[in-house]
From TrEMBL:
Organism taxonomic ancestry: Eukaryota, Metazoa, Spiralia, Lophotrochozoa, Mollusca
InterPro entries: Ig-like_KY (IPR056564), Transglut-like_Superfamily_Mod (IPR053041)
KY-like immunoglobulin-like domain mapped to chain residues: 16-128, 205-307, 404-506, 627-738, 862-970
Name under which the protein is recorded: KY-like immunoglobulin-like domain-containing protein
Domain of life, source organism: Eukaryota
Length: 1061
């Protein structure tokens, strides 16, 4: 879900002094933050004199410029901005203006809005481009947009163009002139048909003016216009793997229009290269003429290869349908519609069978074919030919049962559908056997055809066979099963009997590793319990448990060393066990082989081969990550190699910085997959960025560095460098570093103390910090202030005891004032009590919950409650400030409970604010720490007076990062219902800005709204539509534990209250 972006102080609202100098007056939206339920809005401004105005619109989350979705209309002293938002999210809208008489060409920024579009139900299209001559007084009434999706027959045109003598539209070389609406006015009208241009994009066809762009969704079209006939080809390359993915691109040419259809199979960066020459050129090698870099940020549709194009498929040939054929296609009734100029006959050729198409006038050919009879054949070429010369090929992969599946008596037990989605990155597929078979399998990454069979393992348990499949990354995988009679053929020659297409979308990804390699003798009757894989993280006590029919002995060999396994169990249930210390093989290339002796055989036969694995990493994961690395200006200084061996569990990693950058990080413990970023502390100076890293135990850790130029307006930081750190010993306990706030920026440095903890010295603590430009520095601990003494221009020192806080889980805030009045939080320490070092394995461990706990409960449907901004009840969020929304179909009484799972099921419901509109209930959630939380929703119909509200929906929230301070929301009283809504402020405390606090609330049917602070009363202004606003100072209350009460008058003189503090 999109969260409200962090904005620079002073960004929103009036941009002084230009706002006053130009004389801007806000006419329609006087508040700089706008929340709209639809994706269309008009913003109107006025000025004291005629102005020229323009705008910029940015997607606040991606930073993409979407100004083409805004149309500016000016008339005298009024300017109207018509805004159509393409998707639900946050947008930054910037207005630029100057008096019309001012000859300056560069218009200054005068006002900025933040627009939150909560729903995008109406399809929108870019507005027409406005040229310099479209100035003050020009006005477009109809049509506002032209698109193939709208009506193009008998288009009615109505424009106002002052001083114009004649107005015309030029489309595809044809002129359509307008008539004056009146003899003396400036209005012009016309009516004509443009339906012949549908689908041709008759404007200048540069659909992607920027050669680096984001593809959301993953199916895009790139259109070009050729001034003369050309021959062209294209190449699509996956930047991560370097693999040629050109089969996912298709070129179509019609007249001067060239369209490239690009269907990207997975998220990531792709290079798209275009090659071209004039059609009459005799040169065979086409030169590269244009390159794009495409960043696919979201995959919304499954992608399949396009048909292969032959040389005969040249200028003028055009494929209308089918663009692709795949397992989900309707193969019984495939409709063909193609354009092949000068062809005498056109046919579809399948396995040497010919299906001729029928000519439908001119070069158009159509027909229907039934291809269902070819199901069950793994790969078949379907060729289209004219005069028996092939012109393009469509490759079809048929899934499910293959020849031999039923013949060998096989049947599916767990996954009868050949194509399925897995919410876990490991899955077990079971088949039922009626007779002993020799079996094997193969796993391929669908997008690259990379062989990943090492991530599969088969176990036999009569009368079934279980295939365990690990999928290291999200995406599509092809899983093929092979089988044959025992002793009939080598495993590589077994016939293919069943095929799956698995879409891996892990809800909670976990680390997965290769399985042991099963040798030829691992056949029916063999069953592996432990270990399914061996990794370097845990070699001290490896437990083996294997079931082998008829074996007389079993042993493990490691680089020539022998370890005997013991036989346990009863006659019909015997298995072999052993516990071994394999630590000596951790840092050397080692193969572990399990072998056994069977009666009638000489010597032992090998059954399983393990290779001790380091943590699995994606291709190109380590080291430099482009394109963000070059843009950041960072270079590794202390550890240039991305694989680092740490002799102890504390290490310092340093980067050189060529310019000022915003930097953050993520530390992941490989053995658990848990994020433990609070064990990393970042310090920045003019030339260096230093990361202090602690690791709680021996093992592997992934450290990811993210960075962005400080001048960039983009809110998301790209990954620039990745390390794999191997911690060989952990002699010291690991404690969390202090939390860094936004004001702790470049130049700030803490020399001591780096950590505060109950196990450390808390008496006479020496404080030594560097905070440029600070005028005052202090520490706030348990309500008490400890002020620092300045030494020099930037250094601040202090010495005091905090021993009275030992064992109290107390927060200690380092604050600084830059104006001598208001203090800003810099660092937040937490003095935690530890018997030993913190157990990070258990801190963020997913709680054990029953299967029926999550999601809708018994009476959810009766209440008409359904998720709005999420799909699954188990959510992973990377911020500790977010919103959970539900749709409601009728008025409800609702409440909630938020439980922190990590600290003994602690109830922290005060960190949730519930707000309701007509058909949406929103829960604003802040949490103090990363980890797991349970959110329980209770509801009853509004007219049901029962005191006990039943539980109707439950969510499990996994918060991976907690980089912001969390504070309790205001307490809500019974009258705060039926559409009451607080826009700002949602939180008040001494760490917030308390000068000129802006209030905006919605209280339906209220006559008056006031705030009580002791004996002081602050009245609100009624803005209409039940909106009340106010602005007053609360700075005198800082640090006084004062109560602020919001009250409203409805019918009588009594006030009903919502307590805020």
């Amino acid at each position: 879900m999109d969260k409200r972006p962090e904005l620079l102080e002073g960004y929103l609202g009036e941009q002084q002094p230009k706002f006053d100098e130009v004389g801007i007056i806000l006419d329609s939206h006087r508040e700089p933050e706008i929340s709209i339920r639809e994706n269309q809005v008009q913003i109107c401004i006025k000025s004291k004199q005629p102005v020229k105005a323009t705008h910029l619109l940015f997607h606040a989350v991606t930073g993409k410029d979407v100004s083409e979705y805004v149309f500016t209309q000016s008339k005298d002293t009024s300017v109207t901005f018509v805004i159509h938002l393409p998707e639900s999210s946050f947008y930054k809208f910037q207005i630029y203006a100057l008096p019309l008489s001012d000859e300056c060409k560069e218009l200054p920024n005068v006002y900025n809005y933040l627009i939150h579009c909560t729903r995008a139900m109406i399809p929108v299209y870019p507005f027409p481009k406005q040229y310099a001559q479209w100035k003050n007084g020009c006005f477009l009434y109809d049509p506002m947009v032209l698109n193939a999706a709208v009506k193009l027959t008998n288009i009615y045109w109505h424009v106002v163009v002052p001083s114009a003598k004649q107005v015309a539209v030029v489309a595809d070389g044809e002129w359509y002139t307008f008539d004056k609406a009146t003899e003396t006015g400036n209005a012009f009208k016309a009516k004509f048909n443009l339906d012949h241009l549908r689908g041709r994009n008759a404007k200048e066809l540069d659909t992607h003016k920027k050669f680096e762009f984001k593809a959301t969704p993953n199916h895009v079209e790139i259109k070009l216009k050729a001034k003369k006939p050309v021959k062209m080809t294209q190449k699509l390359v996956d930047c991560k793997t370097g693999k040629d993915m050109s089969e996912y691109a298709f070129c179509q040419m019609m007249n001067q229009l060239i369209t490239f259809h690009v269907h990207i199979p997975e998220e990531g960066f792709y290079k798209f290269q275009i090659y071209a020459l004039p059609a009459d050129s005799a040169t065979k090698a086409l030169p590269n003429v244009l390159n794009y870099l495409i960043n696919c940020t979201r995959v919304t549709s499954q992608s399949f290869p396009f048909p292969r194009q032959y040389a005969e498929w040249k200028m003028g040939c055009f494929l209308l349908e089918p663009m692709v054929l795949h397992p989900k296609s309707n193969l019984k009734n495939v409709e063909w519609h193609v354009k092949v100029p000068n062809a005498k006959k056109v046919a579809i050729v399948v396995a040497d069978e010919w299906f001729f198409l029928e000519k439908k006038g001119g070069p158009i050919w159509q027909g229907k074919t039934n291809l269902d009879a070819y199901k069950g054949r793994m790969k078949k070429d379907i060729k289209m030919a004219h005069e028996r010369r092939p012109s393009l090929t469509i490759l079809m992969d048929f899934l499910g049962e293959q020849a031999g599946f039923l013949e060998y008596g096989l049947s599916t037990l767990t996954h009868p559908q050949a194509q399925f989605t897995s919410s876990d990155n490991s899955v077990e597929i079971q088949l039922k056997l009626t007779t002993p078979l020799k079996m094997s399998c193969k796993l391929l990454r669908s997008s690259t055809d990379k062989d990943m069979t090492e991530y599969t393992f088969k176990n036999y348990k009569d009368p079934n066979v279980t295939f365990m499949v690990n999928m290291p990354e999200p995406g599509y995988y092809k899983f093929m099963i092979f089988a044959g009679p025992t002793g009939a053929a080598a495993p590589k020659d077994l016939p293919n009997v069943f095929n799956y297409l698995i879409h891996c979308i892990p809800m909670v990804p976990k680390p997965v590793y290769p399985f042991p390699k099963a040798e030829h003798e691992w056949i029916c009757g063999c069953l592996l319990y432990d270990p399914l894989c061996i990794v370097k993280n845990n070699l001290k006590d490896v437990h083996f448990k294997i079931k082998l029919q008829h074996a007389t002995e079993c042993e493990l060999s490691a680089n020539g060393d022998k370890f005997k396994l013991e036989e346990k169990g009863y006659e019909n249930d015997k298995y072999w066990v052993g516990r071994f210390n394999l630590t000596p093989y951790r840092d050397i290339p080692a193969k572990l082989v399990v072998s056994a002796h069977f009666p009638g055989l000489r010597g032992n036969v090998d059954l399983l081969t393990y290779e001790i694995s380091r943590p699995l990493l994606a291709d190109n994961y380590l080291g430099i990550q482009q394109p963000g690395y070059d843009q950041s200006g960072l270079t590794p200084d202390s550890h240039p190699r991305p694989e680092v061996i740490a002799k102890t569990n504390r290490i310092e990693i340093k980067f050189k910085a060529r310019k000022q950058v915003k930097v953050t990080h993520q530390l992941i413990q490989c053995s658990t997959g848990k994020e433990i970023s609070d064990l990393v502390f970042k310090q920045s100076s003019d030339l260096y960025v230093t990361f202090l890293v602690q690791m709680p135990e021996v093992g592997y850790y992934k450290l990811q560095i993210f960075a962005l130029d400080v001048k960039s307006q983009n809110t998301s930081m790209p990954n620039v460098f990745n390390y794999l750190i191997h911690c060989e010993s952990a002699p010291a306990p690991a404690y969390p570093f202090p939390l860094q706030y936004g004001h702790w920026r470049d130049g700030c440095h803490v020399y001591e103390p780096i950590i505060l903890n109950s196990n450390l010295n808390l008496t006479d603590i020496n404080w030594h910090v560097k905070i440029p430009c600070a005028r005052k520095v202090a520490v706030i601990a348990d309500g008490q202030w400890y002020h620092f003494e300045q030494k020099g221009t930037r250094i601040w020192l202090a010495k005091f005891s905090l021993d009275h806080l030992r064992g109290k889980n107390a927060k200690v805030d380092l604050v600084a004032s830059f104006d001598g009045k208001e203090y800003s939080s810099m660092l937040e320490y937490v003095i935690e009590y530890f018997v030993k070092h913190r157990n990070y394995k258990n801190m963020a461990e997913r709680p054990n919950i029953s299967d029926d706990f999550l999601g809708p409960q018994e009476r959810c449907e009766e209440m008409g409650l359904s998720p709005d901004n999420f799909q699954y009840p188990e959510l992973k969020v990377d911020d500790n400030d977010f919103e959970i929304r539900f749709k409601v179909t009728k008025p409800l009484r609702m409440t909630h409970q938020l439980i922190q799972c990590a600290h003994g099921e602690k109830d922290i419901s005060e960190y949730v604010l519930k707000q309701m509109t007509k058909d949406i209930v929103a829960f604003d959630v802040q949490v103090p720490l990363s980890g797991y939380y349970k959110l329980l929703i209770f509801a009853l119909p509004a007219d049901d007076n029962s005191k006990n509200l039943p539980n109707v929906y439950n969510c499990l929230l996994h918060v991976t990062m907690a980089c912001k301070p969390a504070y309790p929301y205001p307490k809500q009283f019974a009258q705060w219902k039926d559409g009451c809504y607080i826009f700002t402020p949602k939180i008040l405390n001494s760490s917030c800005k308390l000068t000129n606090v802006e209030w905006k609330v919605k209280v339906p049917k209220a006559k008056n709204v006031v705030v009580f602070i002791g004996d002081d009363v602050h009245d609100f202004e009624n803005r209409g539509n039940d909106i009340f606003t106010a602005k007053f100072d609360l700075d005198k209350l800082r640090g006084k534990n004062a109560k602020v009460t919001l009250s409203a008058n409805f019918v009588d003189d009594k006030y009903n209250s919502l307590k805020l503090i």
